[in-house]
Amino acid sequence: MFQPEKVCFGALLIFTFLFCVDTQICNDRQTLECLPICSPDCINGYCENPGQCGCNVGYQLDKTNTHKCLPICNNTCGHGTCVAPNLCECNFGYRFDNLTCQPICTEPCVNGTCVAPDTCECFTGYRKTESNLCLPYCSNGCPYGTCVSPENCTCNNGWDKDSSGKCVPHCDMDCGGGSCASPNVCECKTGYEKSRNGTCIPVCSNGCLHGTCIAPENCTCNDRWLKNNTGECFPICDMDCGEGGRCVEPDVCECLSGYENNENGTCIPHCSSGCPNGTCITPDVCQCNEGFNKTHLGLCEPYCSSGCGNGTCVEPDVCQCTTGYKMNWDNLYHPTCIPECEDCNGTCVAPEKCIYFFEPQSTTVDEPTECNDVACVSKADTATETETINYYTKVSSETTDSNYDENIKLNSDKVYAQNIW
Ligand SMILES: *[C@@H]1O[C@H](CO)[C@@H](O)[C@H](O)[C@H]1NC(C)=O
Ligand SMILES: *[C@@H]1O[C@H](CO)[C@@H](O)[C@H](O)[C@H]1NC(C)=O
Ligand SMILES: *[C@@H]1O[C@H](CO)[C@@H](O)[C@H](O)[C@H]1NC(C)=O
Ligand SMILES: *[C@@H]1O[C@H](CO)[C@@H](O)[C@H](O)[C@H]1NC(C)=O
Ligand SMILES: *[C@@H]1O[C@H](CO)[C@@H](O)[C@H](O)[C@H]1NC(C)=O
Ligand SMILES: *[C@@H]1O[C@H](CO)[C@@H](O)[C@H](O)[C@H]1NC(C)=O
Ligand SMILES: *[C@@H]1O[C@H](CO)[C@@H](O)[C@H](O)[C@H]1NC(C)=O
Ligand SMILES: *[C@@H]1O[C@H](CO)[C@@H](O)[C@H](O)[C@H]1NC(C)=O
Ligand SMILES: *[C@@H]1O[C@H](CO)[C@@H](O)[C@H](O)[C@H]1NC(C)=O
Ligand SMILES: *[C@@H]1O[C@H](CO)[C@@H](O)[C@H](O)[C@H]1NC(C)=O
Ligand SMILES: *[C@@H]1O[C@H](CO)[C@@H](O)[C@H](O)[C@H]1NC(C)=O
Ligand SMILES: *[C@@H]1O[C@H](CO)[C@@H](O)[C@H](O)[C@H]1NC(C)=O
After folding, report:
1. What is the rounded CA–CA span in Å between residue 312 and residue 398?
2. 39 and 47 in contact (C-beta within 8 Å)?
3. What is the three-class DSSP state of 114?
4. Cβ–Cβ < 8 Å for 397, 321
5. Ligand that comes closest to the CA of residue 370
6. What three-state secondary structure class fits 71?
7. Burial group, residue 290, by CB count within 10 angstroms (0-12, 13-18, 19+)
8. Scanning 331, 340, 378, 399, which has the fewest C-beta atoms within 10 Å of its C-beta?
9. Contact 74 CB / ligand 1 (< 6 Å)
10. How many angstroms is it from 293 CA to the middle of ligand 1?
11. Which tens digit of pLDDT belongs to each residue from 253-310?
12. Is 252 left (phi over 0), alpha (psi -120 to 50) or beta?
């Protein structure tokens, strides 16, 4: 059944409730003040005005919920949530640091920045390696060197930086006809080979005896050596080495056996006898000088056309008379040795054997004679000058001068004796 007073009371209650929501009411019957009512309650704030929340320090009102104040984190939390003023609750893999959530890299990023958990981003000039390290980067790759900082390539030991910044090997020696391929190792160009000290020297495939191989297959002969048509170096001898010799070194003749070097180095035939008064024309063959004849011993002895009887042929056509004989100059060009007799007014037929073919006048054979430098004349004959007189030259047995004509001149007095005859 319907009770009007009960309905009226209920309507009043509803009204009162609605009023209280929209207006400030005194909900605390003990205080005299009236406080604003915010319903629902303000989170992290206070009811500033009825239904209007104010935020605590470090909080700000949530734009989507006017009853809620959210903490302020000065730096945005990033990968995390701001749970209290300047306090972030970070996501997994991040850590609260410097008022924000920063990614955690378990291995610290060197030369890079940790941009995400366990992810480094390299600084500029650095590149990540396969092992996730940031290493300085050199755009040329820095072969044979180490990239010590961005675009700074430092060469390994034994390598030098060239003008273009590349690392090139260094060889202590000059590689010559080659290039330095690795530290102290030359690589030779074709036509060159490695010498004992490691440099590259040109190769002359036929060798280069007595010369210098100055370029591949270019042998340049030493001084006083010349190249012949087979490309070999042969020595120059200023002298003719002769048929028995060979030029073996500059101005050095090597003689065949039977030949010897003369004072000029030429090879001349050698005669073991020495070949006096002759010319050694081939080994041990002596050709006698003119006026000399060869003996059965192969020696040259002077030849006297007169035969040089009773004398010795000492020089061509020069006889030396045997003791007791003297030169007869009757025939100037065919002098002969005739016996010598002292004080013989007759014919001297043998040494000191005087034979008379005419009767001496009034004197005996033994009568003394008068002698001058030229001739001996018997005393008996001096009175009768018209008579035949034999003049005997006192040709000395020591006229052995080699020059025949000279001999005659020197002995002109003797020749005179002959001429007046
Ligand atoms: C937050 O920043 C404001 C200004 O940028 C500064 O005044 C304040 O002190 C900072 N608060 C904290 C907790 O660092
Ligand atoms: C902290 O963060 C601020 C703002 O992001 C930055 O300027 C400052 O260098 C940081 N300090 C350190 C120690 O990381
Ligand atoms: C960082 O860079 C420097 C040169 O800038 C280099 O010497 C060093 O090795 C690098 N560190 C690492 C861990 O890569
Ligand atoms: C490169 O690095 C070396 C060694 O660290 C240093 O001495 C040199 O000055 C650097 N050069 C340049 C151009 O940075
Ligand atoms: C290396 O050897 C060559 C010939 O074998 C010589 O000419 C050169 O001077 C040598 N160089 C050095 C540095 O010893
Ligand atoms: C050898 O070298 C010399 C000197 O450099 C040069 O004059 C000559 O022409 C060269 N000979 C050959 C066959 O290359
Ligand atoms: C060139 O000279 C060498 C050395 O002297 C010699 O052995 C060779 O027979 C010579 N060749 C010619 C063609 O003359
Ligand atoms: C030696 O050489 C000189 C000068 O060329 C010459 O006058 C002389 O006759 C030579 N001697 C011989 C034995 O050939
Ligand atoms: C002949 O040889 C001999 C001995 O060697 C020497 O004494 C003499 O003078 C030579 N005679 C001539 C004409 O050469
Ligand atoms: C000696 O030599 C001469 C010419 O020098 C010659 O006429 C003569 O026949 C030779 N005699 C002998 C025995 O060889
Ligand atoms: C040498 O002299 C003697 C006289 O003593 C003479 O009989 C002989 O014919 C002479 N011999 C010659 C070859 O002249
Ligand atoms: C030889 O003749 C000379 C003068 O005609 C005379 O004086 C001398 O006594 C003669 N001698 C002899 C040995 O008869």
Report:
1. 12
2. no
3. strand
4. yes
5. 12
6. strand
7. exposed
8. 331
9. yes
10. 144
11. 999 999 999 999 999 999 998 899 999 999 999 999 999 999 888 889 999 887 888 9
12. beta
